[in-house]
Structures are given as C-alpha cells and as structure tokens.
Q: What sequence folds into this?
C-alpha cells in the first residue's frame, strides 16, 4: 500500500464525523431483518468477549488496562460481541459490539462494593437490552448463549425478569437455597447426587490433537434455587431487586469432560435436555468468529497511532468484514445448490480456474467448488475423512484469491 493510500485511510478513520457506532448501525439493521425473515425454529444470540492486547505498541496513551500477565500489566481493548446464528448453524450477523477497558470504571473501589453499572460485567446485560431494542417487534424465538463469564447473578436475574430463554455454562459452585444464611447443598453436589436422565453422543475437538472425536456424556438435570449475592449491593435499588432465582441446571459429563449449564428451558424429557447441550455446543460459532478476527484480520496486531476512536473505527470495520467472511465460509460448506455468481463477480470465480490452469466452466459453478479451490490457495489438502478447511486456511486462501482475481481482471481488461 502506498503512503498516499495510507494517509487517505487514516483521514477516514480519524474523521470526527466517523464513529464506530455509525459504522456498524447499518449492519445491525440488516442482521435484525435477517432474524425476522428467518424460518429457523430459533435464533441463538451468542455472547462472548476477547482481549486485544496492544501492550507492545509504543503509542497507547488512550488505551487502558485489560488484565495482567503474571505481574505485568496488559493494555489494550476488550471486545464484547453478540453473534446471531440459526438452529441450523447459519450465521446471520452481529447484534451488538462494545469495546472497553478497565480504565472506563473506578477500579479503586472493590468490585463487591460497586453497583453493576460500575462494573465491566454490565456489558453482558447492556448487550441483551440493546439487542432487544434493535429487534423491536419480533416474533422470532431468541435464545441467549454464553460461557462461564456470563454466570453472574445480575445477568441471570435480568434474563429471568425479561422472560428471556438462555443457556449459560455455570462458573460458580454456589450454595443453593433461598438465602445464604439458610444454605443448602452446593450446586455441583446436588447434581452429582441426582439420578441420571440419560446420555448423549456429541462431537468435540480434542485440545491436544485438534482432531474431532465423538464422546458420550451422561445427563442429569434438576430445578434449583440460587440465592442472591451476599456481598456488596450497597445500592438500595439494586438490593431491593435481589431475590432468589429458580433455575434449571443440567450436568453433562464423562471421565474427562463436565459441563454444568443454567437455563430456563424445560428439562422434563431426555430429548429436551439433549437439546440444551446441543444449544450450548453451538457457542463454537463465536469462538471461530473471534478466531477470524485474530488470526485472519490480526486486529490485535493492527494499531493506528492515533485516537482511541480511530482504533475502534478500524476494529469495527474489520468486525463487519469478518462477519461477512464467516458467513461466506459457512454457505460454501453447507449449501450445495447456490451458484458462485450469486456471491462473486464473473471475473472472480473465473480467476480461480485460471490460477489452477483448469478449464473455465461455461456456466457459473456451484459456490462450494469455488470455496474448495480458494481453500487450496490457503494450503488445504482434501483428506479421506472429508474435513472442511479451517478458519486460518480459508483466510489465507481469500487473501491469495483477491490478488489472483484482480490480476485476472486487469489482464482481461487489457486484452
């Protein structure tokens, strides 16, 4: 990229009229429309956070603390995202993105003595509220899904009060019961001692080998009562709203794995419990999406030596683009009928055949054929098991594909 082009992009991102909120608002509206028009049985709203570490960069005057690595303070931004997918795993888009650091909060006051409004955990609740505001009147069934970071009283309380459906992995082995003074057994103990409801086979990725393997999990489920937090809550209005929560708890486990899931979905039958586990497993979508941002777009490596708003503008643009790429990868893997011309220009899909010195089809091929060739550009080699190309492979392939397509277009224009 020439210095002139760099300067033009810097002017755009640094323009005070350009804000991250304005940049992503059209994407929210399009996602909301896709949700409303979807024929899915339900939509999963996947919430998660990732840290963008800019500690090694010299210019970080407007960026605050995001945590520690040992005794070393880390600086950068934390991105909280809500990615929506259908029950058939089709990505629909983002419904909320927030960027923050711990300097945005008064951390000199211990967290037990701060209101939820003064904690970073407020973004889980804010994302839920703002997603509903953006959706407006919507008959589609929405299920919020979160990992252990989403297991805190205020978030569970908000979900239940708003009559939202949700599946959240438990982090805390709480005492059960109506109050902390009248403690019952801890959550894990109650579930362990309860009767098994059945079992389910599921596919997971091995942490060490990265291979997909099938495992069988024993299923247990029961309704429990969780008391409000005992610490803090000096804010009278917040304290007044604290009351015990009735919630369903599901345990899925074997010798190596154990998930405890909190939900308000029914647990009357083994099939319902299996569906809760299946819903939680779909959380991998947002992990893959964040992986595209980090390993593909490398947004924790990109740093503009400018204002915080400039940095956020660039991250938001990358987030929207990554969402589009993620959808394209999914469609290429699953939809065997869609034609490449519906998503690519003619010169683009033709370029990939020219690159591999293959005969150019007279009519547009199916998208999956083009996607597979793009994956080959990224180093993908088809296996006997037929595993689809990974996220990093697809990203590298798309980079090479863009260059090849542009070269083919230039050559075609000259001739």
A:
């Amino acid at each position: 990229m020439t210095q002139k082009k760099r300067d033009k992009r810097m002017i755009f991102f640094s323009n005070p009229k350009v804000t991250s909120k304005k940049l992503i608002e059209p994407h929210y509206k399009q996602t909301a429309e896709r949700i409303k028009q979807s024929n899915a049985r339900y939509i999963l709203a996947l919430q998660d956070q990732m840290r963008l570490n800019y500690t090694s960069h010299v210019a970080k005057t407007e960026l605050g603390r995001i945590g520690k690595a040992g005794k070393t303070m880390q600086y950068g931004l934390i991105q909280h995202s809500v990615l929506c997918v259908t029950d058939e795993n089709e990505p629909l888009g983002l419904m909320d993105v927030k960027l923050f650091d711990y300097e945005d909060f008064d951390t000199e006051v211990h967290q037990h003595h701060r209101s939820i409004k003064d904690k970073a955990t407020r973004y889980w609740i804010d994302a839920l509220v703002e997603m509903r505001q953006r959706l407006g009147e919507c008959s589609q069934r929405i299920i919020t899904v979160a990992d252990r970071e989403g297991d805190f009283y205020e978030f569970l309380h908000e979900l239940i009060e708003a009559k939202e459906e949700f599946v959240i992995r438990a982090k805390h082995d709480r005492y059960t019961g109506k109050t902390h003074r009248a403690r019952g057994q801890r959550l894990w103990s109650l579930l362990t001692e309860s009767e098994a409801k059945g079992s389910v086979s599921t596919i997971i990725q091995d942490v060490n080998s990265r291979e997909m393997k099938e495992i069988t999990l024993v299923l247990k489920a029961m309704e429990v009562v969780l008391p409000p937090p005992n610490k803090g809550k000096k804010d009278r209005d917040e304290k007044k709203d604290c009351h015990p929560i009735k919630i369903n708890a599901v345990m899925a486990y074997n010798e190596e794995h154990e998930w405890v899931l909190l939900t308000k979905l029914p647990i009357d039958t083994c099939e319902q419990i299996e569906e809760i586990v299946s819903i939680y497993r779909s959380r991998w979508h947002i992990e893959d999406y964040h992986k595209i941002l980090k390993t593909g777009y490398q947004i924790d490596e990109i740093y503009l030596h400018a204002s915080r708003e400039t940095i956020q503008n660039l991250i938001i643009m990358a987030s929207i683009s990554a969402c589009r790429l993620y959808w394209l990868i999914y469609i290429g893997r699953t939809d065997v009928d869609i034609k490449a011309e519906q998503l690519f220009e003619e010169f683009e899909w033709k370029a990939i055949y020219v690159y591999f010195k293959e005969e150019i089809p007279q009519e547009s091929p199916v998208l999956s054929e083009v996607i597979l060739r793009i994956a080959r550009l990224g180093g993908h080699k088809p296996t006997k098991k037929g595993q689809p190309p990974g996220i990093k492979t697809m990203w590298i392939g798309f980079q090479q594909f863009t260059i090849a397509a542009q070269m083919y277009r230039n050559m075609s224009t000259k001739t």
Summary: The longest strand covers residues 72-86. The two ends are 26 Å apart (CA to CA).
